[in-house]
Every structure is written in C-alpha cells, then in structure tokens.
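Quick illustration, no need to memorize.
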Amino acid sequence: MRNVWIIARREVAGYFSTPLAYVFLVIFLAAAAAVPFFFGGFFESRQADLTSFFSFHPWLFLVLVPAIGMRLWAEERRLGTIEILMTMPLTIWQAVLGKFLAAWLFTGLALALTFPMWITVNRLGEPDNGVILASYFGSFLVAGALLALTAAISAGTKSQVIAFVLSVSAGFLLVVTGLDFALGFIRQWASQYVVDLVASFSILTHFLTITKGVLDLRALVFFGSLIVLFLFINKEVIALKKAA
C-alpha cells in the first residue's frame, strides 16, 4: 500500500500545481449550489431536505468527473512519462490504484466542501440527517464509478479530449438507462424481466435507492463491482501498452 499512497500523493500534488483543481472546485460548488435553487424547486418544495440537491449529482458528475479523470493516463501517454512510471519499483495495479484513489479523494473533497448546504437545511428545519449522510455516500460512490470508467478509457488514448468525450458518452448510457422514459421505451418491446435487468445496470437506479436512506447491499455490490471491473480493464490496457 505504501507505493499506492506515494502515487496518490504525487497525483494530488499534480492537481493543485495547476489551476485545474481550483477551476473544478469552483465550477462544481457553484453548479451544485445553484442547480437545486434554479431547477430543483428547493424553496417551492417547502421541505428542509437536500433531495433536489442530490438528484442532480449524477448529471453534474457525468461531465465534471471525466474532466478530472481524462488526464490520469492520457497525459502520461502524451508526454511519454508513462514509460518512466512503469520503470519505477511498483506494479501496474499499484499505479492504477494510486491514480484512481487520488482522483476519487479529490472528488470527495469537492463533495465535502458542499457542507454549507447541509448546515442551511438544518437551520431551516429538521431534516433526516441519516438520509443526507447516506446520499453523500451514494454521491461518492457514483463519482468513484465514473472515475474508474474514465480511467479505463484514458488508459487507451493519448488524447484527453477523446477520453473526455468517450467517458461522458459511456457514463451517459450508465445513467440514462435508469430513467423512466428509457425504461418505457424498452418496455414497449421487451418483457418486464428485461426492463428490470436493464434498470439494474443503471447508476441512477442504485443511487436513488441510497438517497432514500437505504444502504441496500445490491447497490453497494453494484458500485463496488463497477469500480473493480473498470480498474481491472484499466490495468489490462496499461499492461498491453507496456508489452507493446
């Protein structure tokens, strides 16, 4: 684990050595705070909760998370520093985990900085803080899944732009399959079993379960499996590039 944390610290330092980290934090915090008020009907609901706040997180992460993760490996390949990284006394798994953890922890920092929203609803009323805490955890898992996806795609290209576009597109499919209109379309030609199967592969479906305050084992297994799968793909892509 020592090598993993060395890589993670290196990546985190890399974020804050450029304006990227600060730009991401400002955009995320501004969007996360503004969307519930302007589009989520925060005041119109007359309820002291953060339902509207969390409901937009998958859509914010769909764009902002790939913006963070697209450089994880694409930048290394473009600059040619991936060869130097691979000659260091560490395994490919350690490099993959270190880079992923750095990006995930950075996203977690962005989430943690939204705590004024939590304080605000507690000042306005008596929200269910257990549900809010579970929703934060669910958002963190969504960010982790999309980051692992982006890392796997970034490993296969030297272009950050291509990594970003492909990650947003793939992430969109993982989110949209949980929407009613998408499931309604599938329901027109498929059985309910197929509809439920498609919904079970949606990030949105499992995230909404968690935001109800239910840490369902299926949701936890889903996000954990998704992260492990994409990190495994990430590792295999890097191994292939190294062998070539």
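Residues 2-243 form one domain.
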